[in-house]
Amino acid sequence: MTAPDRLAPGDPAPDFTLPTDTGDTLALADLRGRRVILYAYPAAMTPGCTKQACDFRDSLASLQAAGYEVVGLSPDKPEKLAKFRERDAITFPLVSDPDKSVLAAYGAYGEKQLYGKTVTGVIRSTFVIDADGKIERALYNVKATGHVAKLRRDLGLD
């Protein structure tokens, strides 16, 4: 497997309909007309992913006030996502992509460097999608800690 194709500003955001942490489904098309921050993370309930989710949770009110919806995307099963939501009081949708097809469509699954080794897995990424379903920003290999604060600055929210 080689490095995945990456999305760029202006590209159409790949559509999806995926199961959520609540047992419902969420379709990107349902969020048309709103700006969306879709972030891809490797595994629920791991230290880095928990920190990142809690940072988004803690910023959610101000992000929503600025017109953004937040959605977390991982290969975890909905049952694990439900435990994550309950344990850490996550207040935005978490969607499950166990076959990793949506992650791959966003360029967020493939070869990456982990502790100096090349491995295949989820590439921690964030996508800002405009109200028309186009990519505004595609950020790859982001850090779990400090990413939400940097994103807020980049979006002019701080």
Order of helices and strands: EEEHEHEHEEEEH
Helix content: 25-40%
Return the structural class.
alpha/beta
Radius of gyration: 14 Å
Q: Number of helix segments?
A: 4
Which key features would you list for this structure?
158 residues; five-stranded mixed sheet; 4 helices
Helices and strands in order:
Blueprint: E1 17-19, E2 25-27, E3 35-40, H1 47-65, E4 68-74, H2 78-88, E5 94-96, H3 101-105, E6 109-114, E7 117-122, E8 125-129, E9 135-140, H4 147-154
Parallel strand pairs: 3-4, 4-5
Antiparallel strand pairs: 1-2, 3-8, 6-7, 8-9
Q: What's the gist of this structure?
A:
The protein has 158 residues and is of the alpha/beta class.
Report on this structure.
With 158 residues, this protein is of the alpha/beta class. The chain is built from 4 helices and 9 strands; from the N terminus they run E-E-E-H-E-H-E-H-E-E-E-E-H. The chain has a 5-stranded mixed sheet with strand order 5-4-3-8-9. Strands 1-2 form a two-stranded antiparallel sheet. Strands 6-7 form a two-stranded antiparallel sheet. Strand 1 and strand 2 form a beta hairpin. Helix 1 packs parallel to helix 4. The chain is globular. The chain starts with 16 loop residues before the first strand and ends with a helix. The mean pLDDT is 94.
